[in-house]
Amino acid sequence: MVILHSPQKESPVETFSKTGPHKDRQSVPQAGNGNLTVLAGPSGVGKGTLLGRLLKRHPNIQVSVSATTRSPRPGEIDGQHYFFVSKSRFKAMVENGELLEWAEFAGNCYGTPKAPIELAIAHGQQIVLEIELLGARQVRESLPGAKQIFVMPPSTDTLERRIRRRGQDSEAAIAQRLARAKAELAAADEFDLKIVNDNIDNALAELEAAIFD
Ligand code: 5GP
Question: 67 exposed, middle or buried (CB, 10 Å; 0-12, 13-18, 19+)?
Fold first, then answer.
């Protein structure tokens, strides 16, 4: 059984079924899961930038658009960067089994809509999920053939600087992200491959090699 993190007391999702994201996992086609890549790694490590570069070079790769209860940052577009949904809508998505995986992160919920993943797998299309650790663990259970890649910062100092430099989050959210980053780094060995994002070109080359090997 997949163990989800314990929701915080004030969590809008405290009544969610712990097995909700997986109850109809059989409906996800199992063939061709090797086309699915999970890209994880602590907040601020540069996963988004890496993915942006990957997409420029390989426009046929599909990147999953997650649902989140977080508010949009300046420049973020609904339906492109995320589906920005209310807490009640997110709760309904969980309860209806619409999400392949979901987790709470720094006070907000994030989840991967299942239907586009099913379609991409059915069509043999390359698809990448950029998600945090708890979600990656859930995908490891439901789609064991998927590639699991972890992006590492060159150092924890660099990571902290990047998280702070973004300057779009509150101090409380920054503190939560830093604490979570430490927990995520401790789990790096769970992944099939670790890529150190020291030099973006090298990191991109390693990611490409992993996806297309
Ligand atoms: P941010 O708020 O910085 O966009 O994202 C915070 C964290 O949530 C990042 O580590 C990001 O990878 C992760 N995340 C984004 N979408 C999803 C999702 O659908 N599921 C899970 N489990 N994590 C996600």
Answer: buried
pLDDT, tens digit (0-9, with 9 covering 90-100), for 165-174: 876 778 888 8
CATH number of the CATH domain containing 87? 3.40.50.300
46 near 158, Cβ under 8 Å? Answer: no
Structural domain including 134 reads 29-212
Q: How far is residue 102's CA from residue 111's CA, in Å, rounded to a whole number?
A: 4
Residue 86 Cα to ligand 1 midpoint, Å, equals 16
The atom of ligand 1 lying closest to the CA of 135 is: 22
In a domain, 1, yes or no: no
Q: What is the pTM of this model?
A: 0.84
- Residue identifier of the C-alpha nearest atom 6 of ligand 1: 43
Tally the domains of the chain: 1
